[in-house]
Amino acid sequence: MDFVVAKEFITFFECYRFDSILEKFNLLIHFCYTNIQKSKLCEVKRELFEQKYLNIKENLIKNKFYNFHLNHIFENLEQDISQLEKILILPLGRCHGDLTLSNVLFLENKIVLIDFLDSFIETPLQDIVKLRQDTKHKWSLNLYKNSYDKTKINIILDILDKKVEQYFKTFDFYKSYYTFFQKINLFRIMPYVKNKKIMSYLIKEILKLKNEEEQ
């Protein structure tokens, strides 16, 4: 295994000019786009998501931070699933599986992706969702232990998130299913949560997506 001297994203974002940050971030967008182009549009049964939801719900109820607020999440997701078509048309093909910024190493002239992960559905949409888990929902900031310029990093992430949204909103599958996939993605994290603060954060972010849909 090669040893790579690199920076994690917060350090890189703090130390480098925005044009350099944007150049590296464009590589992530290109990675997702290339995988979309190489994927095939396939039929995916709604039952796949129903079963995944039920499995997560069963595990989540066992979590010690389970609380009544989760009932709102259950109701929301069950409504979403019931409103899905019986057959979804999605691009299936290669994807990273866990493309958060914390799984990207930043070097002077390139990026390195680490910690590839199998997903219950192999679609490049999942990578876009995981990327926006950080740019929109700021997930990795919750896990960062060192001090950093919060205002600067949040501004950068907001700009990058608008770029992701602008780039992929032209795809029909993205317009139709992004929000649902993001809710399921955040929901999938919940059974592994080990503190009340993170659980509350995930509940808030899922409900925020619901409110955005209703606006």
TrEMBL record:
Domain of life, source organism: Bacteria
Stretches assigned to coiled coil: none
InterPro entries the UniProt entry points to: Aminoglycoside_PTrfase (IPR002575), Kinase-like_dom_sf (IPR011009)
Aminoglycoside phosphotransferase domain: residues covered: 89-133
Signal peptide: none
Pfam families: APH
Protein name: Phosphotransferase
Taxonomic source organism: Campylobacter cuniculorum
